[in-house]
Design goal:
Layout: E1 15-17, H1 32-46, E2 50-56, H2 60-65, E3 69-77, E4 89-97
Parallel strand pairs: 1-2
Antiparallel strand pairs: 2-4, 3-4
Length: 103
């Protein structure tokens, strides 16, 4: 579906919380995630909304380029959970983006 067909939010409340973004491995490195995030931030900017995001370290640079700033992070020691002890520390970066019109 073209991005122009996505509905605009009608009840945006006080902000937008973008939950999950995943691109099929066969389609990665084609700019799909970047295009989706650009659409998301354009909706937030048009509505003057802050956006909150929890980023995996692997995608952190993409979100920084689009204007999110680090506000916190948390680490989970995955070796304490499940049978695999080689997973180690998993870091999630908490990020906040103010709308461009309000910067």
């Amino acid at each position: 579906m073209p991005l122009s067909k996505f509905p605009e939010p009608t009840d945006v409340g006080f902000g937008l919380d973008f939950n999950t973004l995943a691109v099929h491995p066969d389609r990665q490195k084609e700019g799909i995630a970047n295009l989706l995030m650009q659409y998301f931030v354009s909706v937030a900017d048009r509505n003057g909304l802050e956006t909150y995001f929890q980023s995996q370290v692997i995608a952190h640079k993409i979100y920084r380029r689009l204007g999110w700033e680090d506000v916190n992070n948390f680490d989970t020691d995955l070796s304490k959970w499940g049978p695999r002890k080689d997973l180690g520390i998993h870091r999630v970066v908490c990020m906040l983006r103010t709308p461009r019109a309000f910067r």
